[in-house]
Specification:
Elements (H helix, E strand, L loop, with lengths): L2 H14 L3 E2 L24 H5 L8 E9 L16 E10 L4 H13 L11 E6 L3 H10 L7 E4 L1 H4 E2 L10 E11 L8 E13 L7 E14 H8 L9 H14 L10 H19 L8 H19 L11 H8 L10 H35 L4 E2 L1 H11 L3 H10 L3 E2 L1 H13 L3 H11 L1 H8 L19
Parallel strand pairs: 1-2, 4-5, 10-11
Antiparallel strand pairs: 2-3, 3-9, 4-7, 6-7, 7-8, 8-9
This protein binds adenosine-5'-triphosphate and magnesium ion (3 copies).
């Protein structure tokens, strides 16, 4: 099944169950101070979950564009993480609950009429004390006990954290569905069913109030499920993203092969260029502040991957048409801004390449200094200076050092970076966002517990 067909099949299945099909919300919400980018399908329904305002419908289904900066370190490394991805979801606002959510998910995944996955290759998790969910899986779906595990609040309570600890707001246990590919390869989480049945207010221990109307919030990874259905080893091998990786290989001039040494950098380039194309399409240009800063970092990282592969001129902008090719069926509007997006990307590429040239001169100075002092590494302080002054990502400094048979004092660099992130400036906050995701960054830099973002910190995931 092609990725475009899967999206349509999911949405029509849930329409048949009475859910109203809603379009994806924007990628960069302008009226939501709690998130920089849309992290999950539920984001556009926060008010409905809280029971704020009049409900036009009580059941919905969407395919939502999402962006999770917290997953950036996993991109191209694990088989299944992107920054930009699409999340399929079905939602209930005080309408259906656990029983239907579980039965419908199972029907959709295993029925021959829909995805027809082998039930023996699926397993699930439930929250420690969620006997209701356990019993539905075990007694009604007839899933054997050895394929249902009970996991703690880090995996199976949302927002993650002990049930009675903050943040306040709607919360509840969840149940995740995993696929186990034949041949002993690592399993992959494809779908998370969240049962938002509590409102968390005030201090523990009695701060979990059952909601009068219970909700359902589910999220299924489009690219992950497509990779399962297409029998490929990574999301980057599915029909759409493979095409983008091949285009990246052509533009950079190395060609693309999954196992080639250039595979991983080209997967990162493909991921990041998709994320920045959609952001700039929505009017968020690379810059110094908030979302713009993230876009700038994604662009620079992608440019740098190409630079290190020997492509030392603007090239990312040439990939925009390839992004449009694979994404315009669900999002035809992106075809309308191609020229503007290309122009914006190219300008930023030119500007950053100029900075790289200037930084290179300073790098050579630091190299000479290390040699004169008889050191076998570039000082962490100097690498940090290059990062702060010239925007040299540490990967670039390390790659340049390696070319000169010298290393970089990464421990010292990391310490300085850590101190910087713990500082109070907005630059510190944003660097933290890029490396750890907004939730952790916010916890570190403010005492604000109102954050209701959905994003967790970087997971280890499967290394391929
Ligand atoms: P993981 O543990 O693999 O990082 P998660 O538990 O953080 O996933 P959820 O927050 O439960 O993910 O999101 C719902 C679904 O969205 C996941 O089951 C998965 O299919 C998909 N998903 C989550 N993060 C990503 C990502 N970075 N790239 C692609 N798909 C993702
Ligand atoms: Mg998970
Ligand atoms: Mg999950
Ligand atoms: Mg995750």
């Amino acid at each position: 099944m092609k990725t475009d067909e899967l999206r349509e099949s999911y949405l029509s299945f849930f329409e048949e169950k009475g859910c109203v099909r809603r379009p994806s919300d924007v990628l960069v919400p302008r009226d939501d101070p709690t998130v920089l980018f849309t992290p999950a399908g539920m984001n556009q329904f926060k008010d409905q979950f809280l029971g704020v305002g009049k409900l036009e419908f009580t059941k919905a289904t969407t395919c939502q564009m999402c962006l999770r900066t917290g997953d950036i370190q996993n991109v191209g490394v694990t088989a299944y993480h992107h920054t930009f991805f699409e999340m399929l979801g079905n939602f209930s606002f005080g309408d259906y609950f656990k029983r239907e959510a579980i039965h419908w998910a199972w029907e959709y995944l295993t029925s021959k009429k829909y995805l027809g996955l082998d039930p023996n290759l699926l397993s699930v998790t439930v929250y420690l004390d969620d006997d209701e969910a356990y019993n539905i899986w075990h007694d009604e779906i007839k899933l054997p006990a050895n394929r249902i595990s009970r996991e703690n609040e880090h995996e199976n309570f949302w927002p993650a954290g002990a049930p009675s600890d903050g943040p306040d707001g709607v919360c509840g246990p969840c149940s995740e569905i995993f696929y186990h590919p034949n041949g002993g390869k690592d399993n992959v989480e494809i779908w998370n069913l969240v049962f938002t049945q509590f409102n968390r207010v005030g201090d523990p221990p009695n701060n979990l109030k059952p909601l009068p109307k219970k909700n359902i919030d589910t999220g299924m990874g489009l690219e992950r499920t497509a990779s399962v259905l297409q029998g490929v080893r990574s999301n980057f091998e599915i029909d759409t993203l493979k095409q983008l990786c091949l285009a990246a290989g052509d533009v950079v001039g190395t060609g693309y092969g999954f196992d080639k040494p250039t595979g991983r950098p080209l997967r990162r380039i493909s991921d990041h260029v998709r994320a920045i194309t959609f952001s700039i399409h929505e009017g968020v240009n690379p810059g110094r502040d908030k979302e713009s800063y993230v876009v700038r970092q994604l662009l620079r990282r992608a440019l740098l991957e190409g630079y290190l592969l020997g492509k030392q001129e603007p090239f990312l902008y040439q990939l925009v048409p390839a992004v449009v090719d694979i994404m315009q069926t669900p999002y035809p509007e992106i075809a309308k801004t191609v020229e503007h997006v290309q122009h914006t990307i190219k300008e930023e590429e030119e500007q950053f390449l100029g900075v790289i040239e200037k930084g290179l001169t300073r790098f050579e100075g630091f190299l000479k200094k290390a040699e004169q002092e008889g050191k076998s590494e570039i000082a962490g302080e100097d690498a940090f200076d290059l990062h702060q002054t010239d925007g040299f990502l540490i990967e670039l400094t390390e790659a340049l050092a390696a070319k000169n048979n010298i290393s970089v004092n990464r421990t010292e660099f990391n310490n300085l970076m850590q101190q910087h992130k713990e500082g109070s400036g907005s630059g510190a906050f944003l660097d933290s966002v890029m490396s750890e995701g907004p939730l952790t960054a916010l916890h570190k830099t403010t005492s604000d517990t109102q954050f209701k973002g959905y994003e967790t910190t970087v997971d280890e995931g499967t290394v391929v």
